[in-house]
Specification:
- The strands form 3 sheets. Strands 8, 9, 10, 11, 12, 13 and 14 form a 7-stranded antiparallel sheet that branches. Strands 1-2-3-7-6 form a 5-stranded antiparallel sheet. Strands 4-5 form a two-stranded antiparallel sheet.
- It starts with 5 loop residues before the first strand and ends with a helix.
- By secondary structure, it is α+β, with helices and mostly antiparallel strands.
- The longest helix has 23 residues.
- Helix 1 runs parallel beside helix 5.
- It is globular and about 50 Å long.
- It folds into 2 domains: about 80 residues, Phosphorylase Kinase, domain 1 (2-Layer Sandwich), CATH 3.30.200; about 140 residues, 2-Layer Sandwich (D-amino Acid Aminotransferase, Chain A, domain 1), CATH 3.30.470.20.
């Protein structure tokens, strides 16, 4: 399968058309965006690692009857996927108070939430991806209510599956972001599941949380990507 024309280029991936209608190629980049998009830097091997991890998780979730756009890996950095009509909403699933929850609500970092929080963010970098609710999404004609309910069900199931997966590897899943699209009349998980889209903390040190070990935006980013790859794929 060969790439044809480039359709889109984002912070972490390039998307190409193929000769087969309904199939696209995702090329994962070594470029990393940190500090809320203010700085870009190259991380050696990042594209390869994110491609491997995303492919692994898509296949893993398929075993739990979660529909995804993944077809197969093509090379170290490329995967073949089904073309979706992407819904321009990012779903953020939060299990632990961290990141923007601390800043927005003045809450203590590290406290486990009694139930996961699902947030919807409109995908618009110029507007800094504002948080929206069901009413916004329906009124703006972005998605229908029954589609949102399916997205919520799938997001909750994905969270449960991934939390259990990481915990068996002595890793705590703090939060993650996912995206969905339409394949005919079906809601399907798209985009990627990689260190660029989830936040995890290490629990392997006698149950204590190491918040820095998987800090992908740090000066040791290359080591962090290698570390999480070895823990996930082992």
């Amino acid at each position: 399968m060969r790439k044809k024309s480039k359709i889109l280029e984002g912070n972490s991936k390039k998307i190409y058309s193929t000769a087969d209608q309904g199939k696209l190629i995702l090329e994962f980049k070594d470029e990393s965006v940190v500090f809320d998009g203010q700085k870009k830097e190259s991380v050696k091997g990042k594209g390869n690692i994110n491609n491997q991890i995303s492919a692994y998780f898509f296949e893993y979730l398929d075993g739990f009857h979660i529909p995804t756009h993944f077809i197969k890996s093509l090379s170290t950095k490329d995967m073949l996927v089904k073309e979706l009509e992407m819904i321009p909403v990012e779903v953020c699933v939060r299990n632990i108070i961290a990141g923007s929850l601390v800043k927005r609500f003045g809450m203590e970092e590290g406290r486990e939430l009694p139930c996961p929080i699902l947030e919807f963010h409109l995908k618009n970098e110029k507007l800094k991806n504002p948080m929206v609710n069901h009413s916004h999404i329906v009124a703006f004609d972005i998605a229908m209510l029954d589609e949102l309910k399916m997205i919520e069900r799938l997001s909750s199931k994905i969270n449960a599956v991934l939390k259990s997966f990481f915990l068996r590897r002595q890793i705590k899943l703090i939060d993650f972001k996912i995206e969905f699209g339409r394949l005919k009349d079906k809601i399907v998980l798209g985009d990627e599941i990689s260190p660029d889209t989830f936040r995890v903390w290490d629990l392997s040190n006698s149950g204590e949380t190491d918040k820095d070990k998987f800090s992908f935006g740090s000066k040791n980013a290359e080591l962090a990507y290698e570390n999480i790859k070895s823990r996930i794929l082992s």
